[in-house]
Design a protein that fits this description.
- By secondary structure, the chain is of the alpha/beta class.
- It has 2 domains: 133 residues, Aspartate Aminotransferase, domain 1 (Alpha-Beta Complex), CATH 3.90.1150.10; 241 residues, Type I PLP-dependent aspartate aminotransferase-like (Major domain) (Aspartate Aminotransferase, domain 2, 3-Layer(aba) Sandwich).
- It has 11 helices and 12 strands.
- The relative contact order is 0.16.
């Protein structure tokens, strides 16, 4: 049985070009970039070249790119330092954020005097812009807004530019977890006045364990990992050059091929939706994931018409058939509590049915989708 991988929102396979480049760097560029000898200087040169290229994709200064172990660390860096060092007293977020943000905010709230407000979530899984504006207008202390660009479970797209300008209007800082959008969407940060964002290489066919935070110049962010002066003093620890090269290479390839790969992946999503509607009656699409204007082209989240008795083992049955997908974020898929995102807008009856996230990449095919649709049809029609 050849596995069918439709869990690309959780992680992607590493491109061959990326793996080859990383292997070369591992063998040839092993000096510590903080060392002053020639091998160290060589590593430092590679490091800064990567930083400069990554910054160029977003039209920002290279000094505004801080390498981290991934999106989770980048989110923690921004949120924790914003409260501890930048004087933020009020955080506005939503209850459909990734746990890298929501759990971090909860931890900060439990140990500090920061006030936390949550923007209302509409029935289509989007955050309410009117409520956000109301919360910002009522806030009379230094405020940070933290809202993700693309929801990792249901794919809803936040109007990043609108929110950024709204925050500027109300003199609030704006942070966005862009882990699901970097490498999949162009983000010109010279036009979008966002203050912080987080990204992770393994979401766009790069290696795991490496990402970056964008930190707008002059904000005074302080490190949460201390010990050395690396990363402009914002993140201590010897930089992993081969991982950073992998990130840089993967991101460059992603943006070079963005339009062609986006068109192909979007066609797969459209084909999946059409086939599923045709073969499985009463299938539901959570949030607005079947709306190509409001949702990312990379994923769908479907609610299947299955009895309560069959729901608990549905994902396991798909796995037995060689289909890799998930019921939500891979970071919480081992939990029996269900999706915190879907709980915000689905009815109690809908929550009892299996909701499955299928996410696509350039390596998927229509024949794979045909096979998955056949399996889903059989499982839905199979007696309990």
């Amino acid at each position: 049985m050849t596995p069918i991988y439709l869990d690309n929102a959780a992680t992607t396979c590493v491109r061959n070009e990326v793996a080859d480049k990383m292997a070369l760097i591992l063998k040839s560029t092993y000096g510590n970039p903080s060392s002053t000898h020639s091998l160290g200087r060589s590593s430092k040169t590679v490091l800064e070249q990567c930083r400069k290229r990554i910054a160029s994709h977003f039209n920002v200064k290279s000094s505004e790119i801080i390498f981290t172990s991934g999106g989770t660390e980048a989110d923690n860096l921004v949120l924790r330092s914003a409260v501890c060092d930048l004087g933020v007293q009020h955080i506005i977020s939503s209850k459909i954020e990734h746990h890298a943000v929501s759990h971090t905010i909860a931890a900060i709230e439990s140990t500090s005097k920061v006030m936390v407000s949550y923007v209302n979530v509409l029935k289509d899984g989007t955050v309410c812009m009117d409520h956000l504006q109301e919360l910002l207008a009522l806030s009379n202390v230094k405020t940070l807004v933290s809202l993700m660009h693309i929801n990792n479970e249901i794919g809803t797209i936040l109007d990043l530019e609108y929110v950024a300008h709204l925050c500027k209007k109300h003199k609030a800082l704006f942070h966005s977890d862009t882990v699901q959008s970097v490498g999949h969407y162009n983000l010109d940060l010279s036009l979008i006045p966002i203050d912080f964002l987080a990204a992770s290489a393994h979401k766009f066919h790069g290696p795991k364990g490496i990402g970056f935070a964008f930190v707008r110049s002059g904000l005074g962010l302080q490190p949460i990992i201390t010990g050395g002066a690396q990363e402009r003093g914002c993140r201590a620890g010897t930089e992993s050059i081969h991982d950073i090269v992998g990130l840089d290479t993967a991101l460059s390839i992603a943006y070079q091929n963005l339009e062609s790969e986006k068109q192909y992946i979007q066609s797969l999503k459209a084909y999946f939706i059409d086939r599923l509607k045709a073969e499985v009656s009463d299938v539901g699409f959570n949030g607005c994931c079947d709306n190509f204007e409001k949702s990312t082209y990379t994923l769908v989240n479907v609610c299947l018409p299955v009895s309560t008795e069959k729901t608990p083992l549905f994902l396991f049955q798909l796995d037995l058939k060689g289909i890799a997908c998930s019921k939500g974020s891979a970071c919480q898929s081992g939990s029996d509590s269900g999706s915190h995102v879907l709980r915000e807008f689905l009815s109690e009856e809908a929550l009892k049915k299996p909701s499955i996230r299928f996410s696509f990449s350039k390596y998927n095919t229509k024949s794979e989708i045909d096979e998955v649709i056949g399996v889903l049809k059989d499982l839905v029609l199979e007696p309990a």
